[in-house]
Amino acid sequence: MRDNRRAEIETEAGTARITWWSAEEPWAVLALGHGAGGGIETRDLCAIARTLPADGVTVALVEQPWRVAGKRLAPAPKTLDTAWRGLWPALAEPGLPVVAGGRSAGARVACRTAGELGAVAVLALAFPLHPPGRPESSRAAELLGAGLPTLVVQGGNDPFGKPAEFPEGPYGMVEVPAADHGFAVPKRAGITEEQTVMTITDAVRKWLRPLRE
């Protein structure tokens, strides 16, 4: 159940914001950052925030300082990492295991910083393996370097990297059929948005359950 609690956190990169979707009896916190082209209102982040509290997972949707400030362009990855490090104590404050995650650029931030910050796992939604049309500019090292249990949830038609393009590694992969980078599916695919969202949330719920044991 969402408790409408928002907290603004001062970081070296500016003021960040956390919106909490709290479980009644939480056993973990799932922190999710947004991508470079949007905020926390994307279909995947919203669906997870609505669904996971019923499983005892409090979801923290994190807005980077550039979004809080109303800017249109994301800063350099180093600045995104600085902000994430600065707000991490607020995510860990409940004293629960924290799963670091995000979509697109937010997934990259989580992968780069999860180990040093003490996260127990990483959730990478729509991981941007490479810029569209430039498979030679791979970011696989970020994903493979997380060093923690990791789940990638990837659209089957994502121009930033289709599931088959990902290298083998110690992570799980769930494909969202026919979906693009925003997990949108063309009408000709015969798949509804509800089905797509359920694929995402079911995958995350199934993956998190063993972490509780």
UniProtKB/TrEMBL annotation:
Record has Hydrolase as a keyword: yes
Q: What keywords are annotated for this sequence in UniProt?
A: Hydrolase
Task: Name the Pfam families for this protein.
Answer: Abhydrolase_11
Residue ranges of the KANL3/Tex30 alpha/beta hydrolase-like domain? 28-208
What InterPro entries would the database entry show? AB_hydrolase_fold, KANL3/Tex30_Abhydrolase, NSL3/Tex30
Entry GO MF terms: hydrolase activity
Q: Which residues cross the membrane?
A: none
Supply the PANTHER family for this chain: TESTIS DEVELOPMENT PROTEIN PRTD, TESTIS-EXPRESSED PROTEIN 30
Q: What is this protein called?
A: Hydrolase
The scientific name of the source species is: Streptomyces katsurahamanus
Q: What is the lineage of its organism?
A: Bacteria, Bacillati, Actinomycetota, Actinomycetes, Kitasatosporales
